TrEMBL record:
It comes from the Eukaryota. SUPFAM superfamilies: DNA/RNA polymerases. It comes from Hemibagrus guttatus. This is ribonuclease H. One of its GO terms (molecular function) is RNA-DNA hybrid ribonuclease activity. Residues 1-218, 342-601 form the Reverse transcriptase domain.
Length: 601
């Protein structure tokens, strides 16, 4: 019978389109999708200091309450062919059941309402029913999300969420369902004093500060301490279920490790892809895991055996590493989805991926002088992997559009290319007695000055659109840093300008930004080299402007400086220098903003 139900289900899925708000029993969707969307939505409203009102709707014995006539109606309305409706009707027409207990079993009972329990077809039939019943009341995801009968309704105002809840109640109860008054709960993010509560038909809905949504605890204050404790508890519950195997001394450590990885660890990692864990919370999970492994291997702390040996014996890796793997796997899952997917539209990444730690690095001189240090930014490993994935998607789009003069951070190019080209130009000019006027331009703190608004415009011009551009912007919109000196740390502060230091994506973004400046300052004569004219050589922010006369070079420099100024950059007059290669000794006076650049030999 179950095989026949599978066949019918496969046929129905081909002809029925379920709304995007339904995450339950849908292909390529899971509880993680819904949990992630809800957590991100709440996090955004917390960051913006705005209220978000959520109602978690519970339906009473929903599988057992679905009226059969309503089921046939919803199937027909969803476009199911009549022959398949008759097939399902035949399954339900003669349905019988018995109650079996220790003293025997009852006579057969006729079942005339509800869906079959344990049926392979029932979950999809229920999805069809919920899809049709909610057609007039549901909003787009993530404001309305359903996982089978678990419904979340979100809104920016209490009055609106109360109105939406009443509309849902009316739509469901007029078709045979019933909303549970005792289990439906209300939660508010950034609640203000006197904001009140939500009522359902005059009855006050229970107000909570946390809710267990699809097995994951969501807190209104954004903390995840209770979720971590829940994961530890779930791990111990799973461990006790298989303790007969794990504590059996006749079973090898390798087999115990396999049982642990399959039966216990998934319970501890469930839903953690959507949570930003602190080091202390990650440590709590790893301590619990090591206790389980020591119990399983019959080892105590008194035996003085290192944790690495315990893990190696059981062939079990660190739980923190597995959590990061799960996050990256989840990120890949989101990246492969279509642009309309909820997680893409949420347009954000975990906060710790966008967080940097600035530490001082000593250069030279007196260690007591602050100016002898420079700050470097350390980023999280998952955030770097995420940035590398983005870089591999951005580079193929922008690489064909970047000019040949740019050799910085490009494949098969380097500093030797620029040095060789410059030396060949100088040698040829000297040989043919052609003067060359050069300006070595230095930009002040170029990486830290890039305006992000202009950067997004440049990326759009260079072909980076849609979800990919949103992913890059998300990484920068949430960027923040703290300063760490020895064991002391500053508070987190947002970073609104410049590119992220130490990020694999930043060099590509920077050369695209510089390429636009270079293009807009083109039209210059330059110097002749064979059949070509070269007006500039660029390696990231190191720019060499070339001209055959001082007047042309001043014109080129003025135009380049103006484009830099328009793009939010600034030419350093103290570090930029002029040089002339001529058989006659000629002075080259270059000015930027009224300041004269030094001439060097």
């Amino acid at each position: 019978m179950k095989l026949w139900e599978r066949v019918v289900e496969a046929r129905l899925r081909k002809v029925v389109d379920i709304c995007e708000q339904q995450y339950g029993f849908m292909p390529r969707k899971s509880t993680t999708d819904a949990i992630f969307a809800l957590r991100i939505l709440m996090e955004k409203y917390r960051d913006g200091q705005r209220e978000l009102h959520s109602v978690f709707v519970d339906l009473e014995k929903v599988y057992d309450r679905v009226p059969r006539e309503e089921l046939w109606y919803c199937m027909r309305k969803s476009g199911v062919a009549e022959k398949y409706v008759r097939v399902v009707q035949d399954m339900y027409e003669r349905s019988r059941t018995v109650v079996r207990c220790a003293v025997g079993q009852t006579e057969e009972l006729k079942v005339e309402v509800g869906l079959h329990q344990g049926s392979a077809l029932s979950p999809f039939l229920f999805a069809i029913v919920m899809d049709q019943l909610s057609e007039e009341v549901r909003q787009e995801s993530p404001w309305t999300m359903m996982f089978a009968d678990d419904i979340v309704i979100c809104s920016e105002s209490r009055e609106q969420v109360e109105e939406n809840l009443e509309r849902w109640r009316f739509a469901l109860e007029r078709r045979g369902m019933k909303v549970s008054r005792s289990k439906t709960e209300y939660m508010c993010v950034n609640e203000r004093e006197g904001s009140g509560t939500v009522r359902l038909q005059g009855e006050e809905v229970k107000k909570v500060q946390e809710f267990k949504y699809l097995g994951s605890i969501v807190q209104s204050n954004g903390e995840c301490a209770k979720e971590v404790k829940k994961r530890v508890q779930a791990g111990w519950n799973g461990w006790r279920k298989v303790s007969g195997v794990l504590c059996d001394q006749k079973i090898s450590a390798r087999i115990k490790g396999k049982v642990y990885r399959r039966m216990v660890r998934p319970a501890m990692l469930y839903g953690l892809e959507t949570v930003s864990l602190r080091k202390r919370q990650e440590s709590e999970l790893e301590v619990a895991e090591l206790k389980m492994l020591r119990f399983s291997l019959g080892v105590t702390r008194l035996d003085r055996i290192r944790n690495e040996y315990i893990r190696g014996t059981a062939h079990v890796g660190r739980l923190g590493d597995k959590d990061r793997e799960a996050r990256l796997r989840w990120f890949g899952h989101v990246q492969r989805r279509e642009s309309e997917y909820t997680a893409w539209r949420s347009g954000t990444v975990p906060l710790d991926w966008a967080t940097g730690v600035v530490v001082p690095l000593f250069k030279k001189g007196d260690r007591r002088v602050c100016s002898n240090y420079r700050g470097i930014t350390l980023l999280s490993l998952p955030g770097k992997v995420y940035s590398r994935v983005l870089e591999r998607r951005v580079r193929p789009l922008v690489e064909p559009r970047i000019q040949e003069e740019q050799c910085g951070f490009r494949p098969s190019r380097g500093t030797l290319d620029q040095l060789y080209t410059l030396h060949r130009v100088l040698e040829g000019s000297w040989e043919f007695a052609q003067p060359v006027h050069m300006c070595f331009v230095d930009l002040e703190k170029a990486f830290d000055r890039v305006p992000r608004g202009i950067l997004w415009e440049v990326l759009w011009e260079y072909g980076v659109h849609g979800p990919l551009l949103r992913a890059v912007r998300s990484l920068y919109n949430r960027s923040r840093s703290l300063v760490r000196i020895a064991s002391c740390k500053s508070d987190l502060f947002p970073v609104h300008v410049g590119l992220r230091q130490g990020c694999p994506l930043s060099p590509v973004l920077f050369i695209v930004f510089m390429d636009r400046i270079s293009r807009r300052s083109q039209g210059l004569v330059g110097v002749r080299f064979g059949d070509h004219r070269i007006s500039s050589l660029i390696f990231a922010d190191d720019v060499v402007l070339l001209a055959s006369s001082g007047l042309d070079l001043q014109h080129a420099l003025g135009r380049f400086a103006a484009e830099c100024e328009a793009a939010g950059m600034r030419v350093s007059t103290s570090k930029s220098e002029a040089m002339v290669l001529d058989r006659k000794k000629v002075a080259c006076t270059l000015q930027v903003g009224g300041e004269v650049l030094p001439q060097v030999e």
